[in-house]
């Protein structure tokens, strides 16, 4: 067992490393005594362990959140605002340690690891002179299930809106990256957020049972989930048993289109930012790269040259640009996509294999002449593989871009104003990057269409996911 000491983590404040679940203001172990080992994907070193909790602990957490909701939901927006500002200040104060925790458990480079609103009702004019119609917004209550690729950002984007709205939360963090979630909870405790408002249940073997309890328990009125489309569908179906409000940010398969009138150098930079961020492990990552024939060779050559300059290694090393994949299953999927594409005629320009040694490292890869029917164009790779497909016409590429069941993000590069509007409107996605490969911001409505999910996170739209609309007719006026 690796100890949670300063020598292991290298933190300024080692007390941020928590190895227990958090229920009703108390750090707790699993009742059955089970443990989950957490490893650094860059070294295979065991960082520590967390409790293997189950349904019993989940029920306790939900009960605590339900009890706290009775008072937290009635606090004023100003009270919640003040506590959230304290919470935010503590996050900034501890940003270096939070980033280091992300790097150690997630693998991404240290540079990449660094990263309350008012609601309105309305008055509706009545056809009756003695009636006044008023619409108000009220908090609903919430559970949160989050992924491992952005362990802090995903929680704070959901939790910030939930707390601001007056909701309480039960968080089920991923077993791959639990320490980031637990550190954030510790900071929330220090900020003065009351007991029971935030609860954390850690699990791996019992994840199906825990997820089902969150979706079926009648105390929980809202479930927010980020993860794969298959799991999103499963949770959506279970949550329908009590008609819970649900927001789902599911899988993506983003097209990245380069037209022949594009700034090719800018398109290459955009592809690097979109495709290789987090070593390709982002839901808005460019997955299918379509390049018009006139600029195809130039783009492929320049992209390969840029990728050859990457420094793959441990995220804490200063010269590292790209870290490992989260585990060996991710390596297996990228390998399968590379081999499938090559079997269908693709040309390997760089990379294409696992990097030998400890850790789950895969060499950043570029393939050209990729056939449209290759697996990489059908499945989300979630790895450092840029597979380039040639196209001829705008109509053809829009059809290929939309030929998928999901629709989270899409990107394209063009300097033709008419084409910019046509393609932006034609892409069947929730978010479009036009002449940019970076779209994620706290102030935007983040989410997709089709089987990429329901609802939005971030911006003024994000808080609506944690509110219900109530109509009140005032008579006798």
TrEMBL record:
Coiled coil: none annotated. Keywords: Oxidoreductase. This is succinate-semialdehyde dehydrogenase [NAD(P)(+)]. GO terms for cellular component: cytoplasm. GO terms for biological process: gamma-aminobutyric acid catabolic process. Transmembrane segments: none annotated. InterPro entries: Ald_DH/histidinol_DH, Ald_DH_C, Ald_DH_CS_GLU, Ald_DH_N, Aldehyde_DH_dom, Aldehyde_DH_Superfamily. The keyword NAD does not apply. CDD domains: ALDH_F5_SSADH_GabD. Residues 27-472 form the Aldehyde dehydrogenase domain. Its EC number is 1.2.1.16. Gene3D superfamilies: Aldehyde Dehydrogenase, Chain A, domain 1, Aldehyde Dehydrogenase, Chain A, domain 2. GO terms for molecular function: succinate-semialdehyde dehydrogenase (NAD+) activity. It catalyses: succinate semialdehyde + NAD(+) + H2O = succinate + NADH + 2 H(+); succinate semialdehyde + NADP(+) + H2O = succinate + NADPH + 2 H(+). Pathway: Amino-acid degradation; 4-aminobutanoate degradation. It comes from Jaapia argillacea MUCL 33604. PANTHER family: SUCCINATE-SEMIALDEHYDE DEHYDROGENASE, MITOCHONDRIAL. Belongs to the aldehyde dehydrogenase family. The active site is at 249. It comes from the Eukaryota.
């Amino acid at each position: 067992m690796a100890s949670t000491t300063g020598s292991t983590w290298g933190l300024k404040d080692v007390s941020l490393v928590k190895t227990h679940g958090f229920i009703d203001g108390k750090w707790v172990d699993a009742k059955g005594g089970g443990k989950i080992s957490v490893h650094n994907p860059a070294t295979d070193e065991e960082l520590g362990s967390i409790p293997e909790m189950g349904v019993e602990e989940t029920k306790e957490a939900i009960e605590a959140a339900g009890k706290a909701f009775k008072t937290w939901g009635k606090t004023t927006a100003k009270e919640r605002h003040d506590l959230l500002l304290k919470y935010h200040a503590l996050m900034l104060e501890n940003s270096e340690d939070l980033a280091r925790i992300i790097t150690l458990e997630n693998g991404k480079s240290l540079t990449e690891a660094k990263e309350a609103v008012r609601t309105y009702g309305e008055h509706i004019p009545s056809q009756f002179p003695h009636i006044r119609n008023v619409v108000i917004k009220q908090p609903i209550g919430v559970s949160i299930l989050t992924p491992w690729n952005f362990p802090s950002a995903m929680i704070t984007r959901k939790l910030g809106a939930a707390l601001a709205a007056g909701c309480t939360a039960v968080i089920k963090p991923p077993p791959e990256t639990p320490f980031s979630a637990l550190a954030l909870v510790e900071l929330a405790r220090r900020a003065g957020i009351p007991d029971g408002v935030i609860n954390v249940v850690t699990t791996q073997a019992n994840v199906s049972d825990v997820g089902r309890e969150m979706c079926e328990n009648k105390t929980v009125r809202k479930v927010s989930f980020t993860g794969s489309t298959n799991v999103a569908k499963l949770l959506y179906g279970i949550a329908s048993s009590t008609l819970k409000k649900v927001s789902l940010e599911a899988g993506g398969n983003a097209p990245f289109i380069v037209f022949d009138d594009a700034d090719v150098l800018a398109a290459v930079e955009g592809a690097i930012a979109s495709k290789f961020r987090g070593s390709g492990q982002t839901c808005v990552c460019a997955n299918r790269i379509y390049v018009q024939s006139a600029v195809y060779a130039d783009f492929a050559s320049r992209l390969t040259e840029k990728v050859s300059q990457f420094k793959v290694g441990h995220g804490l090393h200063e010269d590292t640009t790209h870290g490992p994949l989260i585990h060996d299953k991710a390596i297996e999927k990228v390998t399968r996509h590379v081999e499938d594409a090559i079997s269908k005629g693709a040309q390997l320009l760089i990379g294409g294999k696992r990097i030998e040694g400890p850790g789950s490292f895969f060499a950043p890869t570029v393939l050209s002449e990729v056939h449209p029917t290759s697996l990489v164009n059908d499945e989300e790779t979630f790895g450092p593989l840029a597979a380039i497909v040639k196209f001829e016409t705008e109509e053809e590429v829009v059809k290929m871009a939309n030929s998928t069941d999901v629709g989270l993000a899409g990107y394209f590069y063009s300097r033709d104003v008419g084409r910019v509007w046509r393609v932006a409107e034609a892409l069947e996605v929730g978010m479009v990057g036009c002449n940019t490969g970076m779209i994620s911001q706290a102030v935007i409505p983040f989410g997709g269409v089709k089987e990429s999910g329901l609802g939005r996170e971030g911006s003024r739209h994000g808080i609506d996911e944690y509110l219900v609309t109530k109509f009140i007719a005032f008579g006798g006026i």
